[in-house]
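Phosphoserine aminotransferase (Youxingia wuxianensis), 361 aa
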Amino acid sequence: MARVYNFSAGPSILPESVLRKAAGEMLDYQGSGQSVMEMSHRSKEYETIINGCEALLRQVMAVPDNYKVLFLQGGASSQFAMVPLNLLNGSGKADFVITGQWAKKAFQEASRYGECKAVASSADKTFSYIPKLNKADFTPDADYFHICMNNTIYGTVFHELPDTGDVPLVADLSSCILSAPIDISKFGLVYAGAQKNMGPAGLTVVIVREDLLGKARESTPTMFNYVTHADNGSMYNTPPTYAIYICKLVLEWIKNDIGGLAEMEKINRKKAQILYDFLDSSKLFKGTVVKEDRSLMNIPFITGDEEMDKKFVAQAKEAGFVNLKGHRSVGGMRASIYNAMPTEGVEKLVELMSKFEAQNK
Ligand SMILES: *Cc1c(COP(=O)(O)O)cnc(C)c1O
């Protein structure tokens, strides 16, 4: 069996041990005589899975007790609307930092529901940095302040969180959740599509401080009200049962095989360093992001010559390194090296890049 090194930005690589475990349990989940996919979500077996997944997530991420964990659907993109529907109902104002396409989409969608302000943007340099924030620009009575923590397409990350005082900080964590410890108490709400670091597509995780619940506007669809899901243990309707099961296996892998998020971060730092060090020393390839804002998860790079980029992506694919093409809006290359990418995968990629460089002097 030949598995490729998959650098996809999402859906993305999963730990091989998780896939093997799921394969082993596919036809007969722990003596139940059925696959998790076929199970009633109201069954005792499934209850153990979803409750186990939540307990593990709380433990691994050290989620404080005054936060609810919700397992939803609709992707991170649905949260661009769900957040304002639920939170933008006090002053009706919210602040946004525009650090890329996802941040912009969150801003545009929320603007349909209230008075939204872009307090800073890095659009002037193709989102290759995190803009400096000036507290004087913040809206003091905003209902929330939104950031996209890790910018999947452009490869930047907030290494430092904005100090928003009493204004709840809301963050899209889709491409950095579970990559390192994060202090949830600094946020009012975080959300993430699962298909980058948590499991398969179809599951969206929301972690929300309890005092922010119950403020949804009257016209909010029942399914878009956080309270609906908080009050029903994410079982108001059928949850994405199989995706939650895989997420639980991924969390078990982080806890038992890796040793938790602090260890995960060490591994991720080491992996990213290997690629960044190469990019900084290469004469052919270069990173596109300013050093101080570089992401550990998504690393875009270019040769500066589109034809050369294409040639590299094609050669890499042939050698079993797939999905290295950059996002269609920026071109070049992008290596997404999420939790499940083994260090060896990054080392081999650098070997390949170095060979390619020698051949294309
Ligand atoms: C992938 C991604 C999204 C979109 O997620 P969907 O689940 O496809 O809606 C939003 N934000 C960020 C940061 C992402 O990486």
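Residues 104 and 195 are 20 Å apart (CA to CA). The chain has two domains: 16-257, 261-359. ok done for today
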